Amino acid sequence: MLALLGLATIVVLLVVIMTNRMSPLVALIAVPIIAALVGGFGLETSKFIIAGIRSLAPTAAMFVFAIIFFGVVTDAGMMDPIIDRILRVVGTRPARITVGTTLLALLIHLDGSGAVCFLITIPAMLPLYDRLGMDKRILALCVSMAAGVNFLPWTGPMIRSAAALKVPVTDIFNPLIAVQGVGLLFIFTVAFLLGKREERRLGLGLARGAVAAGGTPVGSAPVGPALRVLTPEQIKIRRPKLFWVNLILTAVIMAVMIEGAVDPVVMFMIGTVLALMINYPDVKMQKDRVDAHAKAALMMASILLAAGVFTGIMSGTKMLTAMAQSAVAFVPPEMAQHVPFALGILSMPLSLLFDPDSYYFGMMPVVAEVYKTLGGNPIQIAQASVLGQMTVGFPVSPLTPATFLVVGLCGIGLGEHQKFSIPYLFAASVVMTVAAAVLGVIPF
């Protein structure tokens, strides 16, 4: 009975979220509460909810303060010299431009926001691609690869997977640092090779005056990126003299957090306080900077707390356990150890079928519980999932607004973006999955 009720709960959750009949916030609260009441748990349901919220409170707090911290140091201009330097260095060589695009997107995505990454990187690099006649699908791919492989402890998939399993986010992330390094090496290699291919296609290295695609003379005149122009509001809040202070502060916060000496939520709280006091001593400006990033922070925190309701009820009512015990009968024992590796291979394509909330809060906990029942470590299921599901998969998934932001800013069609980018993004996911297996993070 409990297994069927749990299955019905997850199916309904997936349907209402994926068909947009309910927002994730509403679905994650309403659906499990109704299921618990139908199951006869009555007022005991409130205890399950409180237990679930309590377990996710540190994760939600970490995400809130991570958004505010990175928002404040970015407002202060920490990224400005880095962006300008990259734009100067790339010059007019396509191979440098593609690598520079990837590096810039990687750095901008440090705050964990794909939308911010695309909104800054693409307009900064697009003039170069247009003037040289470079394929804009490559621009879309480079920013997608960089944002996708850059799964950090405060990014959405990592936060969701930790919340769903009720484990510290560092337990999932830290073993994947070397795996992520392999992924970064792969995407920079792809970016460089695509840049070299563009050089050949555009005829660079041939006689001066050759004409590139779109009628642009190649080699006849220096071509540079459009200068970035800050608005008066942006100039007002910039603190260029504090660049090194903010950079060192960010490096220390990230190093201590990843090392695990201090809990991530504490480090981001301290970092936020210091960033505000250093850059904006005036109380009104501090309030303005917090207000500027409050919407994004509140939106994600509310989703995480709503997920606490779902996970608390599914665990407290034992529906999750009952589903796992029923599913175990269909998994041959000799195949159990291969579950994480198989999930890693499938994780990127699953981004085209499941949005992040329905996957990480609906499907993944069941798989993790089944794997745990078979004697495996459920954290390996989370690690396999973040190697592709809504990491390298989110910039091509029709289920995420970021995909439409990429194609809109680049001026290309969704179909051509997906056709061009999916093979490379899937390859990145597979490479990282194999690396995770070779390095012993997940079993073959």
Helix-and-strand structural type: mainly alpha
Helix content: over 70%
**Mean of all residue-level pLDDT scores:** 86
What is the overall silhouette? globular
Radius of gyration: 23 Å
Number of helices: 20
What fraction of residues sit in β-strands? under 5%
Order of helices and strands: HHHHHHHHHHEEHHHHHHHHHH
Quaternary assembly: single chain
Q: What gap, in angstroms, lies between the N and C termini? A: 35 Å
Strand order of the largest sheet: 1-2
Low-confidence stretches: 206-226
**Major sheet description:** 2 strands, antiparallel
Provide a quick synopsis of the model.
With 444 residues, the chain is mostly helical.
Question: How does this structure look, described?
Answer:
This protein has 444 residues and is an all-alpha fold. The protein has a domain at 1-202 and 227-326. Helix content is 72%, strand content 1%. A two-stranded antiparallel sheet has the order 1-2.
Strand and helix map with partners:
Elements: H1 2-18, H2 24-38, H3 45-75, H4 80-90, H5 94-108, H6 114-132, H7 136-149, H8 156-165, H9 169-173, H10 177-202, E1 210-211, E2 217-218, H11 232-237, H12 243-259, H13 264-279, H14 283-316, H15 319-328, H16 339-350, H17 356-373, H18 378-385, H19 401-410, H20 414-438
Antiparallel strand pairs: 1-2
List descriptors.
single chain; mainly alpha; two-stranded antiparallel sheet; 444 residues
